[in-house]
Please model this.
Amino acid sequence: MKILKIVITLLFCLSLFASGPKKGAGGIAGGTDDERTIQDLSWKELREVVRKDFDLSFSHHVVFVGRPMSSLDVCIEGDQFRSMKKYPKYELKRVSRSQDHDGDKDGYTKIQVGEEYLSFPINYKRNERVCRNRNRDSNCFYREVDVQQETMKEIKIIKRERSRNKSLEKVIHSKEFMIPYCE
Model:
């Protein structure tokens, strides 16, 4: 009987410990100490909240700088988008097969030769495929299309709600973000 009381007391204490302290009024991240709403958060704080919560994500925030990248990670330099941090730059070098450690024993390997910012024009031209037979391979041609990337983005914060059979995504907030100029 005494052991049963100890086990029950231990389980009760563990359940209190697991629930943690109750802070704030709930909100998207379980509440905050100062009970601020998501509308009051800065972009830096919003990124931190979304990074910590698996069910939250940003939508409509991608720009192209040689590869798709979040608009929160780029700035405007002249008439181009530029990444805020540097990325490694690689060159392909011919080496002996014994020094080829990239998985393919083909005699070539990538060697990092430095770092560079990624950049890409805000306005550019690309080729678009146009088919006259409902996108079948016959009777298709390419035409040049002007593309203008947006410098003002309306970024949406999406919350995933999962149940047994399905997963729903709901927009819980949207906020405008203007891509800043580089310093």
The longest strand covers residues 167-178. Residues 44 and 170 are 22 Å apart (CA to CA). The two ends are 71 Å apart (CA to CA). Confidence is low (pLDDT under 50) at residues 16-27, 31-35.
